[in-house]
Specification:
Elements lengths: L12 E4 L5 H11 L3 E6 L13 E2 L2 E2 H7 L3 E4 L5 H13 L2 E4 L5 H5 L3 H7 L4 E6 L14 H8 L19 H24 L4 E5 H8 L12 H4 L4 H5 L15 E5 L5 H7 L6 E4 L3 E4 L4 H12 L5 E6 L2 E6 L1
Parallel strand pairs: 1-2, 1-6, 2-5, 6-7, 7-8
Antiparallel strand pairs: 3-4, 9-11, 9-12, 10-11, 12-13
């Protein structure tokens, strides 16, 4: 898109200090929606992604794939004269996006607190490994790091094989998507209230969010009780539905009168591990995929008004 292109973000100016993938993917989406994106790159070499192949006529197609539709200027932000040029850009900007390690912008004199005082309408967006707060905030992170730490690798690959990296850079792309969504929300907030905000996105946080229901699965060491190698093997097991495979062993805590014990036995005719405790508290230990499928079907029948399935670190509540 060009400066005159139409789109929902037409008229919005984004100053883009980001490089490689997470930040550039965010600003790519904004450019696709009509924003004017001005990419600020270091004079020596520019964005690191310019050196990534494959190349066509000496130019990186990787770089072009996430920076199309943007304008670019080379500025040394440690040079006083070039800082003046950068600050003129900020005067006209609606959004600034960066994906440096936390603390870098403050060292340059362009942290959120400084910029907010000088440019009160400017939205500040950061995409870093672990966000700007917390014990890991200063740690560097790459796509494969957050894929591994976030858990998606544990449910990816083939049974009997080590955890596998997702084929595309979901760690970076996920963070870029979340940053773009948050920036658009910040623009709407500014339109409604006149207030600019700081957007602080952590790649690791995004990986956790993208796991949907898999984020509730127990820790891999608990899987040894299930007779499977790890959490990924459980999720990849040959049971018809992947979710039931995760209940291969656990405690079914049914808040029901004791006279329903026989109903539970009929629901799990193959189970010989039913233990009835005092106070009408029944614990059912399940240790095979077939029993898991039976349990899920049993719950769907709705024999109980409230049924709680508990595993270490996991709780699922089903209401009839």
């Amino acid at each position: 898109m060009t400066q005159s292109s139409k789109g929902p973000l037409s008229g919005i100016v984004v100053v883009d200090l980001s490089r490689i993938l997470a930040g550039p993917y965010c600003t790519l989406l904004m450019a696709e929606m009509g924003a004017r994106v001005i990419k600020v790159e270091p004079p020596k070499g520019g964005d690191d992604a310019r050196a990534y192949g494959p190349f066509v006529k000496g130019k990186s197609t990787y770089f072009a794939s996430v920076n199309r539709g943007k304008e670019s200027i080379a500025l040394d932000l440690k040079n006083d004269e070039q800082r003046k040029v950068f600050e003129k850009l900020l005067e006209k900007a609606d959004v600034i996006v960066e994906n440096f390690r936390p603390g870098t912008m403050e060292k340059l004199g362009y942290g959120w607190d400084t910029l907010h005082k000088k440019y009160p309408k400017l939205i500040y967006a950061s995409a870093s490994g672990f966000g700007h707060t917390g014990p890991n905030s200063k740690d560097p992170a790459y796509d494969m790091v957050v894929q591994g730490m976030g858990g998606v690798m544990s449910i990816t690959g083939n049974e009997g094989q080590p955890p596998a990296r997702v084929g595309m850079s979901i760690g970076d792309i996920g963070a870029g998507l979340f940053t773009a969504v948050a920036v658009n929300a910040a623009l709407l907030h500014r339109l409604k209230t006149g207030e600019s905000t700081k957007v602080d996105i952590g790649m690791f946080d995004c990986q956790i969010a993208l796991l949907e229901n898999a984020v509730n699965f127990p820790e891999p060491d608990i899987c040894s009780v299930w007779g499977v190698r790890d959490l990924g093997a459980a999720f990849r097991s040959p049971v018809k539905s992947p979710l039931p495979a995760l209940f291969i062993s656990g405690t079914l805590d049914v808040n029901a009168p004791m006279h329903r014990t026989e109903e539970i036995r009929r629901g799990f005719p193959n189970s010989s591990h039913l233990i009835v405790e005092n106070g009408g508290h029944e614990d059912l230990f399940i240790d095979s995929p077939k029993q898991i499928e039976a349990m899920v079907a049993f719950l769907k029948d709705g024999l109980y008004t409230t049924t709680t399935i508990t595993l270490p670190g996991f709780e699922f509540l089903s209401k009839k």
